[in-house]
Amino acid sequence: MRCHVLFRGLVLICAGLVASLWFMHYLLMHPPAFRLPMGDNLKLSLGLQRTPVGPSGNASVVKAVKATSRAYEGNGFVVLHGEHPGQALLSTRLFGVIPWRPVQVQVVPKQYVSVGGQSIGVRIVMDGVLVVGYQRIASTGSPAITAHVEIGDTLEAVNNHPIHQALDISRWVNQTSGGVRLTLRRGQIRKIVQIQPVEDELHNRRLGLFVRDKTSGVGTLTFYDPQRHRFGALGHIITDADTGQPVQGKGSVFNAEVTGIVKGASGQPGEKTGRFVASDGVIGHIESNTQFGIFGDMAISPHREDVSLTPVAVPEQVHSGPATLRTVLHGQRVENFTVEIQEIVHQDTPATKSMIIHVTDPRLLKESGGIVQGMSGSPVLQDGRLIAAVTHVFVSDPTRGYGVYAYWMLNTERDNVAPSVRTAKLISVAV
Fold first, then answer.
1. Taking residues 163-178, what's their average pLDDT?
2. Per-residue pLDDT, 140
3. How far apart are CA 321 and CA 312, in angstroms?
4. Is 358 helix (H, G, I), strand (E, B) or coil?
């Protein structure tokens, strides 16, 4: 009996050792990774009383520098300086003795942009025509329902004739007799359906649909790159106001001015009211609509007299604490307001909702109640760097909202060269 107990204990000890070895192997093979702009310093918390030994691999990429505060010395902190673009491993020792999990550091080129904050008007012409509702024709109902056309579908062709605007549907449907062949896109799937139009009281053949071929609204410019003449704005994807579907298409950007503020309250998000400054003409062209905002080309700086450049922070440089939000409350004047970064989300790969932003500025709270619709894309700065763009407001608390890392926006824009704006519902066209 005693031998049996000892044997079981030995088995458990061996199993624990195997699990520990596997866990240590996993830690060694999957070191945590940090980004560091070239020429900048980054303070890392190593934890567990770990002591940095030094970079290995490409040692010229990064070097450890002396901490500027005694609080960091000997407490698992290290300050690194980015020397050259590339990757290096920082070896560490637990309690200064036991070799422990290394830290991977990637030094990236420092990126600069001209910070925005201006109100912009956005107009997108859709690829195809979006179905937003059904229309009853005489006493027969909607032929589209019978043909299983769904709200949110994008109509692309009638009898193989491409559809570019709503009026194209009526034209091609009324130039034929009998049934028509409708090509549509539902998500990523293309379908062909047969539909039998019905005549209305004026003898026009109709499909029984309400459709939309364009959308527009007012948002905020996040950044402008004067060297490449590129811009990023909004910080989130534009969706159709009725269907919630992402808007696919190309568009134009205009200067806009704020004509009023509807103050937000708990359960009732506020909004900016504004209008396009048509006399300025088109100032940019939208090429992509992504989950991180809209991006495209902009030939002339919207800043006019101010084209100063600001570095863009990598996510590791963003921290809780005070920050500055730039946006427009009146006319076209960009102003700075105080906010607090309350929560930071660790994101190794691009994702939305990177942080929670709390408005603390007394005047902004008095005039708008906090974050309102139309502020989407408003840039946020901290420690002299562009760190984020405002994207959403909490319906239950308009003083708080989400922000997305500006680093994700900038690199999404660069990947697309070669994807709250309030979308205004234009009058839907019946077909």
1. 90
2. 79
3. 18
4. strand
CATH number for the domain formed by residue range(s) 136-207: 2.30.42.10
Please say if the pLDDT value at position 190 is more than 50. yes
Residue 153 is predicted with a pLDDT of 93
Tokens found for residue 89: 């491993």
Looking at the annotation, which residues are catalytic?
A: 236, 361, 376
Exposure class string for 84-96: b at 16+ Cβ within 10 A, else e: eebebbbbbeeee
Taking only the tens place, the pLDDT of each residue in 117-130 is 999 999 999 988 99
- Listed in sequence order, the DSSP H helices in 30-64 are none
Q: Which residues contact 196 (CB under 8 A, 6 or more apart)?
A: 143, 146, 147, 178, 179, 180
Question: Which residues are within 8 A (CB) of 262 and not within 5 positions of it... i.e. 6 or more apart?
Answer: 270, 271, 272, 273, 372
Instruction: Go through 280-299 and write b for each residue having 16 or more CB atoms within 10 A of its CB, e for each that does not.
Output: eeebbebbbbbbbbbbbebe
Confidence band for 416, pLDDT divided at 50, 70 and 90:
low
Under 8 Å CB-to-CB from 175, ≥6 apart: which residues? none
* Helices within 105-165 (DSSP H only): 143-146
Token duo for residue 347: 């994101």
pLDDT at position 88 is: 79
Scan for tokens 């905020």, then name that residue.
Answer: 220
The CATH number given to 113-122+214-424 is: 2.40.10.120
pTM for the complete prediction?
Answer: 0.81
What pLDDT does residue 308 have? 87
Place of tokens 């205009």: 254
pLDDT over 50 (residue 51)? no
Q: Which class in CATH covers the domain with range 31-109?
A: mainly beta
Q: How far is CA 29 from CA 22, 89, 104, 210, in A?
A: 10, 12, 11, 56
Residues 242/426, Cβ–Cβ less than 8 Å: no
Please tell me the distance from the alpha carbon of residue 86 to that of residue 62, in angstroms, as a whole number.
Answer: 9
How far CA 260 is from CA of 215, 273, 275, 321, 385, in Å, comes to 21, 5, 10, 30, 30
Closest by CA to 270, choosing from 120, 157, 376, is 376
Domains 31-109 and 136-207 agree in fold: no
Domain ranges of the chain: 31-109, 113-122+214-424, 136-207
Residue 279 has what pLDDT? Answer: 83
